[in-house]
Design a protein that fits this description.
heterodimer; A: about 110 residues; mainly beta; seven-stranded mixed sheet; about 50% strand; B: about 110 residues; six-stranded mixed sheet; four-stranded antiparallel sheet; 12 strands
Chain lengths: ~110, ~110
C-alpha cells in the first residue's frame, strides 16, 4: 500500500502566486489533516476533515483553503502565497474515535515563497 | 482544551546511554497519548500509544513510555540508545474535549553521540 501520498514534494512560488497541494490516502480513513512544520514550532494544524464533503479550521487556517470532494483526497490551496507560508507541509489521515490520534503521515511538501 | 508541553527542545546523549524525553499534557477529560518519531527529511511515524489499560506502553525500536495520570505526564524512555535513534520526537494528546483531534508538542531533538 502507498499509504499517504503528497504531491508535489517541492515547490517554489513567488509572492502572490497560487497553488494546490494534493494529498491522497488509500487506507479508507475518515479523517484527514494538513499540518505545517516550522523550526521550533512543532506541528501546527491548518485544516482538517472528518469525512467526505466536510472541512474544519485548525490552529492556523488563515491564508489557506481546503476541499475534500472525495474520501481519499484532501487538497490544500494557497490563493495568494506570502513569504510567511514558507514551510514544510504534512498531510495525515486517521480512523475516528479513540484511534483518531494515531496518524499516518505523508513524506511532506517543502514550499518556498520568494 | 488540551495542550502538550515537551520540556526539552534538545537532548544530547552518548551511544548506549539511557535517555528520557519528557512530555506533560493538560486536559480536563480522559486522554489518549502518542509519541511519534521523525527522521531527517521524512514524515512522522508512530512510536507508541496509550489508549487505556496498562500505564506502561512498549513501542517500536525498544522505546517505552509510562502514563502517569497524577503527574499528567507521558515520558518516553529507552535504556540504551543507538546512533540511529537520532531524530525529532513529538508527543501528542487527543481527547473528547478536542473532538479527538490530536495536539502536538513542539518536539524534542534527540542527538546521539558516538
Amino acid at each position: 500500500n502507498a499509504g499517504v501520498t503528497q504531491t508535489p514534494k517541492f515547490r517554489v512560488l513567488k509572492t502572490g502566486q497560487s497553488m494546490t497541494l494534493l494529498c491522497a490516502q488509500d487506507m479508507n480513513h475518515e479523517y484527514m489533516y494538513w499540518y505545517r512544520q516550522d523550526p521550533g514550532m512543532g506541528l501546527r494544524l491548518i485544516h482538517y476533515s472528518v469525512g467526505e464533503g466536510t472541512t474544519a479550521k485548525g490552529e492556523v487556517p488563515d491564508g489557506y483553503n481546503v476541499s475534500r470532494l472525495k474520501k481519499q483526497n484532501f487538497l490544500l490551496g494557497l490563493e495568494s502565497a506570502a513569504p510567511s507560508q514558507t514551510s514544510v507541509y504534512f498531510c495525515a489521515s486517521s480512523y475516528g474515535g479513540a484511534n483518531t490520534g494515531e496518524l499516518f503521515f505523508g513524506e511532506g511538501s517543502r514550499l518556498t515563497v520568494l | 482544551a488540551q495542550s502538550v508541553t515537551q520540556l526539552d527542545s534538545q537532548v544530547p546523549v552518548f551511544e548506549e546511554a539511557p535517555v528520557e524525553l519528557r512530555c506533560n499534557y493538560s486536559s480536563s477529560v480522559s486522554v489518549y497519548l502518542f509519541w511519534y518519531v521523525q527522521y531527517p527529511n521524512q514524515g512522522l511515524q508512530l512510536l507508541l500509544k496509550y489508549l487505556s489499560g496498562s500505564t506502561l506502553v512498549k513501542g517500536i525500536n525498544g522505546f517505552e513510555a509510562e502514563f502517569n495520570k497524577s503527574q499528567t505526564s507521558f515520558h518516553l524512555r529507552k535504556p540504551s540508545v543507538h546512533i540511529s535513534d537520532t531524530a525529532e520526537y513529538f508527543c501528542a494528546v487527543s481527547s473528547s474535549g478536542g473532538s479527538y483531534i490530536p495536539t502536538f508538542g513542539r518536539g524534542t531533538s534527540l542527538i546521539v553521540h558516538p
